Here is the input.
Amino acid sequence: MVKFNPEDYSGLGLAVNLALSIAVPLFAGILLGQYLGEKFGNPPLFILSGVLLGLFAGFRQAIRLLLKK
Here is the structure.
């Protein structure tokens, strides 16, 4: 039977943090883009802007997280 140490799961926590640091701002950017698109009448432009802003914020946070480790 194989026994795992707690150190074996340290990479899993980092992977989850990286995934969430990219996914949450991206999702928030999409929702904000949809809202602004419905409010101002140009959904594709605002959704695209929200996606780009969310990706920028997510990757910036992921890089900061990786450099901190």
Q: What stands out?
A: Residues 10-40 form the longest helix (31 residues). The chain is about 85% helix and 0% strand. Residues 19-68 form one domain.
